[in-house]
Structure formats: C-alpha cells, structure tokens
Amino acid sequence: MPALYFTLNTQHLQPLIAPITEECDAALHAECIWTTAEESPPTPEIRRRVKRCDVLIVAIGSSGPGAPQLNKRMREEIVTAVNQDLILVPLLIDDARLPGKGEVGGVWKWLLNSKAHRLRTARWSEDLHEVLDEILAELAFRREVMDKVMKAGTGPLPEVKDSQGNPLEPPRMGLEFSGVQELRRTLDAEHYNLGRARQSGDRPAEKQALAALGLAYARLGQTQRAIECFEEQLPLVRELKDAKEECELLANLGDAYAVSGNLARAKKYYEEQLCRADEMGFAPFIGSAYNGLGHVHVKRGELACAIDCYRKALTHYRDLEDHDKELELLVGIGLNQEKAGDLSQAAETLEQARVSARYVENRKEEARLNVDLAELYKALNEPQRAFDCLDDAEALFDLFEGSWTDPWKSRIASLRSQMKIA
C-alpha cells in the first residue's frame, strides 16, 4: 500500500485536500498523511512522517500577487523527500503558478524540475485521475527497478537491464520529468507525427517529432534508437538555421555516444558543440560542452585534461549562477584531483563543494562530501579535521533512512577505527 504525504502552502486548501485524500485512499488503497499550513516549524516527527511515504504532493494555491511562498516546514519536507528519493508532485490549484526558473533557487528547483499537475476546484475529481495514473505508473516503474536490483545483487543500478537488454535507470540527458505512461504516449504520438510530417514535406514538424522521439528513447534507456533520431534531426536543424537548437542537439548526441561507450564520437560532437556555442556566444552550451569533454577525458584516464575542462565549465556556470552545476563540477574536479594524487588541492576543492551543497540544500551530497573530506584529511595527517567531518557526516546521515546509508556509515566507522589505532 503506497503512502502519500500532502503538504499545503495555504490554509484555504484544507477543505479541498480532505476529500482528495479520501479519493486517493479509495482509488489507490493509499495511506494519506497531510499537514496544515499552520503546522509548527519542522520537527523530527514531521521528517519521520515524510520518510515513510512514497510520494510528496505539494499543493499550491493562489496566495495573492506574485509567486507562491514556501514556509520553513514545507522547505524541510521537500528537502527530506528529495533526499529520500520520493516521487515529488507539484499540484497547482486553479490559477496558482510556479515561479520561473530564473526567479527562485533553493528547494524550488526540485519542484520546477518535476511535472506539475493542475487541479480545478470545481472539477477536482476529474483532474485527480490523471495525477493518480501517473503516480501509479511511476510507483510500478520503481518497483520493477528495485525487483531487478534485488535479483542482480550489489551491481550498480544503471547496469540492471530489462528483458530486452535496456537499462532500467536511463540517463536523463536534459529531458524534463515524465512518467512511464506519458513516455509511451509520446512515442506513439510522435511516430505518427513523424510519418505525417514526412508525407507532407513539413520539415519543421519532422524536426520536432525526431527531437521528441530522441529524448523519449534516451529517457527509456534505448540509447541507439535515441542516437538514430538525433542524427536524423541534425541536418534538419542545420537546414532550418536554428543555432541554439543545434547546440542542444550536439550536446544530446555527445551524451548519447558517451553513454554508448563510443568516446571518439562523443568527443567529436562535444567539440562541434563548443565551436558552435562559442561562435554564437551561447554561454550555457559552452559550459555544457566543456563538461562533456571533461567526462570523455576522465573515461580515457586523462585526468589533467579532464580537470582543465571541468574548470572551464565551472567558470561559465558560475557566471550563469547555476549553483547545482557548480556543485556537480566542484565534486568532479575534487575527486579527479584526488585520483591524480594532489590531495591538498582536492581537499580545498571539496571544501568549496561542501559550502555549495549547503547553499543548494543538498544534504545527501553534503554528507557524502564530509566522508570524502575525512579520508583526505586522514591522508594529509590532519586527524582533528577528519573527525570533525565524520561528526558532521553522521549528523546528516541520521536524517535519512534506507539501506543506501549503510555503506557510508560502515565507511565512517572504519575511518574512526583506523585513526584511533594510528
């Protein structure tokens, strides 16, 4: 029986959410938990309630002029849900809206990267069924993944395959959130649109259909089919002279070839992306291209080149104030500096990453960074700094539940034991 957690940004939603939870109970046989807008600030009990759920539904009603607000309790609930890998569903009531991606940061980014559903007060029962269908499909998909993982033992998730040999945890490559049912509908619809566009000679429509198909296949882990769609799309994009879309497509091709293991082709497309983005002054795509090239160099064992590319990407993403990419790149740079044997520089870079993780409220990454830093400070013969990092890591891991924390806690215990013996 799934457990659904509802949180509300305004007390005016309470009369609406009560019957919705009853409908969810009847339709999904789900346990429904919900908090009122006036509930006290976050407490350990609230965190425990979120952790034992499968889905966090963030109901957002209109709260006057401007974008809606999230109180401290809601922010804590969303952070907990993301770090526990719950399904996150923004539910926009009537004319409520989410802010634009450039307007807000922090926990909002997780809501903005999730598929939002609109629910009309006057017809909520009708609208709710689509939401529940998506939740059921996503829960079923996750159960299938976990079943495969359990049968596969301790192997990494991306290597677990379905009966056709496709990965069950595919790379996202820029595709916004969509449930399994929506992806299937997308494939059916876009294959039809592609055939109709080719029959009528509509080149822009053909290009759009290939783009949608490529991203859907990438999301499903069918990398070769994604590549075929992307490569058919590329001459159309160039013919139609859409430079921004060309950069985006070159990035997708680089990602897809990197996933397939063809690093030479991946490098070729990343370099084309860099050249085109630099020519047009598209800063985000310049950063993306350097990031992709860094990944290729890492896979080839060329760590100095990888670090150099990642640093160039970092400069661009800092200029764009993209704090999530900044965190990702700092971690990549620090870990590769450690591999290269430059431990002091690695510790300095991962300290910056830890500050960045706190800023974007990614506590899971912050906890892992504390353990990595402890190992570095142990190797640098700075035991007190290592113990401080382990204390911080333990405090953060205590916020989480699940078997994924066990290896990290074992690693902490081993480090403590080694340093006490030393």
What can you tell me about this protein's structure?
With 422 residues, the protein is an alpha/beta fold. It has helices at 14-28, 44-51, 72-83, 108-112, 124-152, 180-200, 203-219, 223-239, 243-260, 263-280, 283-299, 303-319, 323-339, 343-359, 363-379, 383-397, 405-421; strands at 3-8, 31-35, 55-60, 87-93, 117-119. It has a 5-stranded parallel β-sheet, sandwiched between helices. Strand 4, helix 4 and strand 5 (117-119) form a beta-alpha-beta unit. Helix 14 (343-359) runs antiparallel to helix 15 and helix 16 packs antiparallel against helix 17 (405-421). It is flat, with a radius of gyration of 23 Å. The model is unreliable at 148-178 (pLDDT under 50).
How is the secondary structure organized here?
Elements lengths: L2 E6 L5 H15 L2 E5 L8 H8 L3 E6 L11 H12 L3 E7 L14 H5 L4 E3 L4 H29 L27 H21 L2 H17 L3 H17 L3 H18 L2 H18 L2 H17 L3 H17 L3 H17 L3 H17 L3 H17 L3 H15 L7 H17 L1
Helix pairs in contact: 1-5, 2-3, 6-7, 7-8, 8-9, 9-10, 9-11, 10-11, 11-12, 12-13, 13-14, 14-15, 15-16, 15-17, 16-17
